[in-house]
Amino acid sequence: MKQLRQTERTSRLGQPVETQMAIDAQIKQGRHAFRNAVNASPPLATGTVPPFSEASIVRSSHGHDADVASLAQPFEKSIGAAPRHSETTVDMPFDAEEMSSAVVLDAIPLPVFFKNREGVHLGCNRAFESFSGRSRAEIIGKTVFDLVPAPIAETYAALDEALFANGGVQQYEAKTTAEDGGVVDLLLSKTAITDIAGNRIGLVGAMLDITERKRAEHDLKEALEFAEGIIAAIPDVLFEVDADGRYLQVWARNQELLAQRKEVLLGKLVRDVLPPDQGDIAMLALEEADETGASYGRCVRIALPNGESRWFELSVAKRPSSNHSTVTFLVLSRDITERKHAEGTTIEARARLLSVLQTIPDMVWLKDVTGKYLLCNHAFEGLVGKAEAEIVGKTDYDLFTAELAQFFRDKDEEAMQAGRILINEERFTAHEDGRSVLLETRKVPVFTGGKLTGILGVARDITELDTSRKKIRQMAFYDSLTGLPNRTLFNERLREMIGDAASAGQRAGVMLVDMDHFKAVNDTMGHPVGDELLRQVATRLKEGVRTSDTVARLGGDEFAVLLPNVKDNDDLAQIASRMLAAFGERFMLSDREFFVSCSIGISVFPNDGEAPDDLVKYADSAMYLAKRSGRSNFRFYSRDLTIGAEKRLALESDLRLAMRHGHLELHYQPKVLLDNGKVIGSEALLRWHHPKKGMIPPGEFIGVAEETGLIIDLGRWVLHEACLMAAAMNADGLPPHKIAINLSPKQFQCPHLSQTIADVLQETGCRAEWIEVEITESLLLHNCEGVSTTLSQLHASGISIAIDDFGTGYSSLSYLANFPIDTLKIDRSFINRSDKRSRELVKAILSIARCLGQNVVAEGVETVEQEKFLAESGCAVAQGFYYSKPVPKSELLVANARP
User: 674 in helix, strand or coil?
Assistant: First the structure.
């Protein structure tokens, strides 16, 4: 065939001019004939395709040539043959007919072409031009060998020969490569054209893009195979039934699970196959699915052909359908016989378990996740004082006090959130006799199918056990005579104190206290009196230490004290001094007065050592040093105490002289509005110019003033000077300027503080609204009535109240609401740090103040970045070195007088 086609092509190319002209005439006539043929041909689905590469499937429609006679007649005319039926010719001028056919042909979106018997293309439409990538001029007069590679051309030529040989309509599928590289599927349809004598003189062809159809067929095939795979894999039975319950289709991997054979079931109604009661259940499932779209959980019992009866759970879904008049349902029938047997076993076991629960002495109850009781045993009934019928359905809030009920609820939620058993000890007042009992309660979360459904509680009365445990602990860790911790507990707490101090970077102290001449009391008055003296000494020692300290009796007349978190040796010295003072008072023993002294030795962690035994040893050495030094005193293991005490005494003496000779003065640090830089007030700060030591920081002498009581006179002097300054700063014509004055907690211990301040205001001509009192957070922690009353009186008089260094102490939101606080001063430690946590704390303080209607002043602002952050965060007022260091009174007055 290849050789034949190539020969024909060569022959045509070598034809004389006359022959070629004749062919051109045939082509022109053929166009006219082909357009008529297209009009008469059956329509194909629309679609366009790019050039194709190979044919894949051929399907021939074998029919009589007469079936396509209407297509042959115009084609015969184009090549000079007489038409069979004269009525098929169109009586119009050739040019008009030519133009009309061309328009119609180009309007067809399918690629269409026609050839003569020798394979020469006589015409095509624009769709074919686009498909082939060539113009009509490049196609007409050419054969397939001129248009595509030889191997492909031979395939198409062979298909054309087959069409000419067999006639009829030839259809086949082919694949082609699109310009973007994708594969396109085509359907080609060709028919042979015959003349009046029945000779096949040419063909007409059209192409259709069937890529989407092929893809859809492929997807459908895969979906069907996937569905069949699922059905084959699941052990359940799948039915399709109509609304009447008629079996339309059955899929079952295990045919033994069918009530009847598949071929018997098809066409039958559910009610005809199942017993009446089970059939009713199945039809209810269909009705529910018809109304809601699905139905789940209904179970039926079916007798199988082998005589076995099994349980099945029905899951019904209304099947989607484009035909709304036909409603069918898909029913998944799952064998749950084993589950039913397990449920029955569980019910029986539950009944037996409940019988056991009623006999055990422990209290048992079960609640759902909302706290409602589901069951309880007799022991729990006795504890609550109600029958189970009165308990089930109720919550703890219905049975107990609100506080106790909330406690129980919190413990329940804690166990449920933890997802595991939690053991607690809960104090409870028994209903039977009103006695207080201690219960060891175990709360166990209950899960059903992986979902939390409740909480199981088991409680045991451990009151007697707890009493025994306390007695055993008391005997093991406490001195039977004084009730103080013994040496064992002391050593344990010593190790804990050292570990905590090391972790926190703190100092801690160890004291050993030994009574002087205790043996003489024992020998003179006897051991009972000596024991009573030891008990009284223990009481006085406990009263002389902090609540965080531990006083222990190591044996005989030797006591020990643990003092965690001490700032310096002065703290230890103060505590030791209080102990010595307590021993200085008389002891009443057998109606007689006795005076007993003691000697105290002190060691410090980590200065003197880090090992527990070393610290005890060093304290013991210091104690004997105290005895050798005359008794009734204390000694440190080092000389730090002596140095510190001497320095403190000298500082106290110098401070008294400074107050007498006017070495103290006030400096003022301005407060500035962040939005415009305007100065609206200042803080009065005490300064001490020592004639020899120079400037002494307030942190060094304020503490001494408070401990010695000098703070009262010093505080009144500061208040008087600051009020004079406030009056000067707010003179006529000057902008408002408020002076902030720091008050010590010691000043609030003095009666009539508010009256003292009022007297100073009157003396200085200062108005209350011109000053602000700054206090520390520690003052508010005790919340004593006197402090609250004083602050309220000051606030009522017009004096504003500010909390200084807010956030560094034991900050509590309650005192912000309970006390008349006007201003919060954010401590400089938050401002100077740029870490995210500190900045968020600043924002939080600002937010709290805004909510409570309080002002905020930021202390210690030193950079423009800090000012920018505060302004962006909503802070209105700041003070710090960025604006001004504390300045003397004269400088502030000059600055305030400037316009």
Answer: coil
Q: What is the pLDDT of residue 84?
A: 37
Collect contacts of 396-399 with beta carbons under 8 A, ≥24 apart: 396/371, 397/371
- pLDDT tens profile 824-848: 999 888 888 888 888 998 999 999 9
Residue where the block lists tokens 């002289």: 657
As annotated, the residues of the chain forming the CATH 3.20.20.450 domain(s) are: 650-896
Query: Does residue 173 contact residue 187 with C-beta atoms inside 8 Å?
Result: yes
For residue 540, which amino acid is it? R
Is 879 in contact with 676 (CB distance < 8 Å)? no
Closest CA to 415 of 380, 439, 441: 441
Question: How many other CB atoms sit within 10 Å of the CB of residue 151?
Answer: 10
CA atoms 829, 832, 835, 838: torsion sign: positive
Residue 208 backbone dihedrals phi, psi, to 5 degrees: -135, 130
Pull the structure tokens for residue 577.
């001094």
**Distance (Å, rounded) from C-alpha 270 to C-alpha 404?**
58
Local structure of 69: helix, strand or coil: helix
Q: Which residues on adjacent β-strands are paired with residue 660?
A: none
DSSP string, 527-595: HHHHHHHHHHHHHHHHHTS-TT-EEEEEETTEEEEEEEEE-SHHHHHHHHHHHHHHHHS-EEETTEEE-
Residue 458's region, left for phi above 0, alpha for psi from -120 to 50, else beta, is beta
Q: Mention the CATH class of domain 481-637.
A: alpha beta
What is residue 319's DSSP assignment?
A: P
CA nearest neighbour of 315 among 424, 430, 237, 217: 237
pLDDT lower than 50: segments of the chain: 1-20, 22-23, 25-94, 641-642, 645
Cα–Cα distance between 473 and 670 in angstroms, integer?
61
Q: Which residues contact 891 (CB under 8 A, 6 or more apart)?
A: none
The confidence score (pLDDT) of residue 3 equals: 33
pLDDT at 352: 78
The residues, ordered by sequence, that sit 6+ positions from 231 with a Cβ below 8 Å of its Cβ are: 238, 251, 253
Q: How far apart are CA 775 and CA 788, in angstroms?
A: 12
- pLDDT number for residue 640: 58
Q: Give the angle subtended at the CA of 72 by the CAs of 68 and 76, to the nearest 5°.
A: 165
Q: Do 458 and 363 meet the contact criterion of CB atoms below 8 Å apart?
A: yes
- 491 to each of 488, 512, 614, how far by Cα in Å? 5, 13, 12
**For 234-342, CATH number?**
3.30.450.20
Q: What is the structure's pLDDT at 61?
A: 40
Single-letter amino acid code for the residue at 218: H
Phi, then psi, of 813 in degrees rounded to 5: -70, -25
What stretch(es) of the chain map to CATH 3.30.70.270? Answer: 481-637
DSSP 750-798: STTHHHHHHHHHHHHT--GGGEEEEEEHHHHHS--HHHHHHHHHHHHTT
Where, residue-wise, is CATH 3.30.450.20 in the chain?
100-214, 234-342, 360-466
Per CATH, which fold does 100-214 belong to? Answer: Beta-Lactamase (3.30.450)
- Domain 650-896 fold is TIM Barrel (3.20.20)
Architecture per CATH, domain 360-466, reads as: 2-Layer Sandwich (3.30)
Instruction: Please report, for the chain, how many H helices and E strands are present, in that order.
Output: 35, 33
- Cα–Cα distance for residue pair 676/879, rounded to 1 Å: 14
User: 109 to each of 104, 106, 133, 600, how far by Cα in Å?
Assistant: 10, 8, 15, 114
| pLDDT value at residue 70 | 35
Q: Which two tokens stand for residue 805?
A: 């260094």
Q: What does the DSSP assignment read for 83-109?
A: PS-GGGS--S-HHHHHHHHHHHHHH--
